[in-house]
């Protein structure tokens, strides 16, 4: 199904999109987060690690990936133990680089086999990434660490798949309506980022939160898809989740977007309801920090171009950044740099995953 004239003609600030975005933020009861500023200390620790890692971090593009890993760790997981936050930041930086490193495709194709066999990786980037995965059980309960690793290996599969000619030759259709979610659950790494919310030091009882993981994954995927839609439309992208699902369901993209907003709100509501029944309030607190930080990340980054919707500013984002009342205001500096592209390139999702697409 071709995109409608209405959808193709979306301008800098489309009123219908403004209503949709405002509904998401309002119905989620989003509150701009306020936490101590740990970015400088985390950045120093990441730089110390990077300097001896051999992984690329000094080029213009590598620095963007580095900054996003740093910023999302601060935004999503503000009160995690420092070592855990550092581990997530390094993981995210390396994963984003891998996702965008088309030149390393041949090396990446053998990553999983070498990882399972314990064999050396052919590059510093992949070696450090393998080490990060092997060390995951230092910070997460062993079973949870396994889920995170499995989710990450699925991300590697999705990255390789998206570079295959067969993938680009697929024709979306209603008979394959489950395909968009199948790909999204792998390329976006939502399971890993959901489990990252609950480090074993602070959240040792996996029974308190495990039943909520599927809805957390839905929220992580859909909130990103919704808040990325404006900039993707401006860039002329038609292979994103919303448009692909629209083709499969034979509906207009804006109608699908409204449905996805409702599904994201419902998923969050179920997570909140579940965690509020738990005896330990820490689990609900961790989710609250994450879901607010996740929205903040998207509303604050210039990459998403959401500043053209003044209705979002009253939710506290503009005031937070202007007044610097939170450590995240400093973190936004890194986000503001995450938007430039290679000359002549169309915007490419930086890990559809890593939920900063």
TrEMBL record:
Which GO MF term does the entry hold, naming one?
A: carbon-oxygen lyase activity, acting on phosphates
Give a yes or no for keyword Hydrolase in this entry: no
User: Highest taxon of the source?
Assistant: Eukaryota
UniProt KW Lyase keyword: yes
Q: Which UniProt keywords apply?
A: Lyase
| Coiled-coil portions | none
Which Pfam families does the UniProt entry name for this protein?
Answer: TRI5
Tell me its family. Belongs to the trichodiene synthase family.
Q: What is this protein called?
A: Longiborneol synthase
Query: Can you name the source organism?
Result: Colletotrichum asianum
């Amino acid at each position: 199904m071709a995109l409608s004239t209405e959808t193709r003609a979306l301008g800098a600030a489309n009123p219908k999109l403004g209503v949709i975005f405002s509904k998401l933020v309002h119905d989620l009861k989003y509150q701009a987060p306020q936490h101590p500023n740990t970015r400088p200390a985390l950045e120093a620790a990441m730089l110390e690690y990077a300097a001896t890692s051999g992984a690329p971090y000094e080029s213009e593009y590598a620095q963007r990936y580095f900054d996003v890993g740093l910023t999302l760790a601060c935004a999503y997981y503000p009160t995690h133990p420092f070592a855990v936050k550092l581990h997530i930041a390094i993981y995210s930086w390396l994963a984003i680089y891998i996702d965008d490193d088309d030149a390393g495709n041949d090396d990446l194709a053998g990553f999983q086999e070498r990882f399972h066999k314990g064999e050396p990786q052919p590059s510093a980037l992949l070696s450090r990434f393998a080490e990060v995965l092997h060390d995951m059980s230092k910070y997460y309960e062993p079973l949870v660490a396994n889920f995170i690793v499995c989710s990450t290996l699925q991300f590697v599969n999705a990255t390789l798949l998206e570079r295959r000619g067969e993938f680009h030759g697929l024709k979306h259709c209603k008979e394959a309506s489950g395909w968009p979610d199948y790909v999204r659950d792998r390329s976006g790494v939502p399971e890993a980022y959901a489990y990252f919310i609950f480090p074993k030091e602070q959240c040792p009882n996996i029974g308190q939160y495990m039943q909520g993981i599927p809805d957390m994954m839905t929220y992580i995927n859909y909130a990103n898809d919704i808040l990325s839609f404006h900039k993707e439309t401006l860039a002329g992208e038609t292979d994103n989740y919303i448009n692909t699902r629209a083709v499969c369901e034979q509906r207009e993209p804006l109608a699908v977007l409204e449905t996805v907003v409702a599904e994201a709100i419902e998923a969050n509501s179920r997570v909140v309801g579940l965690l509020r029944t738990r005896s330990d309030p820490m689990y609900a607190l961790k989710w609250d920090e994450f879901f607010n930080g996740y929205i903040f990340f998207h509303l604050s980054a210039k990459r998403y171009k959401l500043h053209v919707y003044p209705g979002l500013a009253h939710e506290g984002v503009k005031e937070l950044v202007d007044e610097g009342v939170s450590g995240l205001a400093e973190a936004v500096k890194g986000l503001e740099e995450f938007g430039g592209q290679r000359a002549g390139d169309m915007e490419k999702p930086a890990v559809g995953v890593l939920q900063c697409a």
